[in-house]
Write a structure and sequence with these properties.
428 residues; alpha+beta; UDP-n-acetylglucosamine1-carboxyvinyl-transferase, Chain; 4-stranded mixed sheet; 15 helices; binds uridine-diphosphate-N-acetylglucosamine; binds phosphoenolpyruvate; peptidoglycan synthesis; transferase
Length: 428
């Protein structure tokens, strides 16, 4: 386990370039095993999730290389093999191998991606989709076994009971090579779903309607990559830097963004009084002096992303009054609250709401990044605080923030990642 140390209080300035979207990448890599050719991605973020997914690929004899943001994956010699449970459990998105293995081999066995880091994360809608496509699913001792009869998977109508990014993508992965037409209704509309569909369609798939709530898939027998797929920019990483820039910046340009993907977020910053200058693919955040409190309710896309409520929180400390956040997607996503309080923040959870009061004098402290976005909020708070902040479990931050120390250092922050030697010596 690693620790992040932040020497707080430095004003930030300069430019930061956003990497490829984590939540696309972690689905694109499992999707790559559906191809009958090698596959190449660029704008791949250098994050722990990618390295763990590469380990999972290796266990199936799928060779991959990753250098300078380019990831190549060769699934042509793939074999069925038990997947390494430590890597599987390290990231939720390993559940996309259920859909892609089903598409490739008509069966899949996977240990349940463990952990409960942002509240309960059921996969009943994924299972419902697999069953509708003709699979049988059993679960025993934390292992999910999905099988099909001799006819394999067939096209079907799938109505998702709730809007789920994971279930929508898993249903696409399983259906893309199934015989016949599949229609997913009440599908999630997140930009990452469009990115997966674009990748598959460029290999010959017929996925129509991604980005709307009805997705139609005509199964095809083979998928062949003809070109490099460029991953869309990470709207959550972008939102994190926008929040940080408004909180501590003396003028920061956030580059490589698709502003349309960030509208629900930038609308809230503007409502707070941050005079953003939004261009075609970058956003300038000037130094901000006064901020108005706001109310935020997280919703499926195009609503305000649950993944951005925690990164936004430290900025709310600077507003002149109480702000309120309601996370309707993951109401238990509150791991940051107790940690921020240790730094002197006025924040509490009350009747399903997060109430954030002005907190002018944050003080560096010893805190824990219980999950990725809680970690992001602690990083921003640490930058705002006087003194040093030590964030334990920084691996959770590195799961999803591309080269974060280099990017923060280039913005004039004083941060470092160190090995937690006591943990290395066996404390954990
Ligand atoms: C790797 C990835 O892309 N992760 C994202 C994905 O997670 P994840 O795919 O886990 O989230 P979903 O969109 O599936 O879940 C949305 C809501 O539906 C519920 N649900 C979901 C599936 C299911 O079978 N049953 C069920 O009840 C969940 O508990 C949650 O309340 O979308 C979340 C919501 O935008 C983001 O926070 C995560 O960053
Ligand atoms: C919760 C998140 O990711 P994951 O679904 O991979 O845990 C996130 O990206 O905020």
């Amino acid at each position: 386990m690693k620790k992040m140390i932040i020497h707080g209080g430095q004003r930030l300035t300069g430019e930061v370039t956003i990497g490829g979207a984590k939540n696309s990448t972690v689905a694109l890599i499992p999707a790559a095993i559906l191809a009958d050719t090698p596959v190449r991605f660029d704008m791949v973020p250098d994050i722990l999730d990618v390295h763990n997914l590469m380990l999972i690929l290796k266990s199936m004899n799928v060779h991959s290389t990753f250098e300078d943001g380019v990831l190549t994956i060769d699934p042509t010699e793939i074999v069925e093999a038990p997947l390494p449970s430590k890597a599987i459990k390290s990231l939720r998105a390993s559940y996309y191998f259920m859909g892609s293995l089903l598409g490739r081999f008509q069966r899949a066995t996977l240990s349940f991606p463990g952990g409960d880091n942002i509240g309960p994360r059921p996969i009943d809608q994924h299972i419902k989709a697999f069953k509708a496509l003709g699979a049988s699913v059993t679960e025993h001792d934390g292992t999910v076994k999905i099988t099909t009869g001799p006819e394999g998977l067939h096209g079907t109508r799938i109505f998702l009971d709730m809007v789920s990014v994971g279930a929508t993508i898993n249903a696409i992965l399983a259906a893309v090579k199934a015989v016949g037409t599949t229609v997913i209704e009440n599908a999630a509309k997140e930009p990452e779903i469009i990115d997966i569909a674009t990748f598959l369609n460029n290999m010959g798939a017929h996925v129509r309607g991604a980005g709307t709530d009805v997705i139609r898939i005509e199964g095809v027998p083979t998928l062949r990559a003809m070109n490099t797929h460029t991953i869309i920019p990470d709207r959550i990483e972008a939102g994190t830097y926008l929040s940080m820039a408004a909180a501590m910046g003396d003028g920061i340009v956030v580059k490589n963004v698709i502003p349309e993907h960030l509208e629900s977020f930038t609308a809230k910053l503007i409502e707070m009084g941050v005079p953003l200058e939004i261009s075609e693919d970058s956003i300038y955040v000037p130094r901000v002096t006064e901020l108005t409190p706001i109310q935020v309710k997280t919703m499926p896309f195009p609503g305000f992303a649950t993944d951005l409520q925690q990164p936004l929180t430290p900025l709310l400390f600077r507003a002149a009054g109480s702000s309120v956040i309601i996370d309707t997607i993951y109401p238990k996503r509150i791991k940051h609250i107790a940690e921020l309080r240790k730094m002197g923040a006025n924040i509490r959870s009350e009747d399903g709401m997060i109430v954030v009061d002005p907190s002018d004098d944050l003080i560096g402290g010893h805190v824990q990044a219980g999950e990725i976005r809680a970690g992001a909020s602690l990083v921003i708070a640490g930058l705002m605080a006087t003194g040093d902040t030590e964030i334990d479990q920084a691996d959770n931050i590195l799961r999803g923030y591309d080269r974060i120390v280099a990017k923060l250092t280039a913005l004039n922050a004083n941060v470092e990642i160190v090995e937690d030697s006591l943990v290395e010596n066996g404390r954990d």
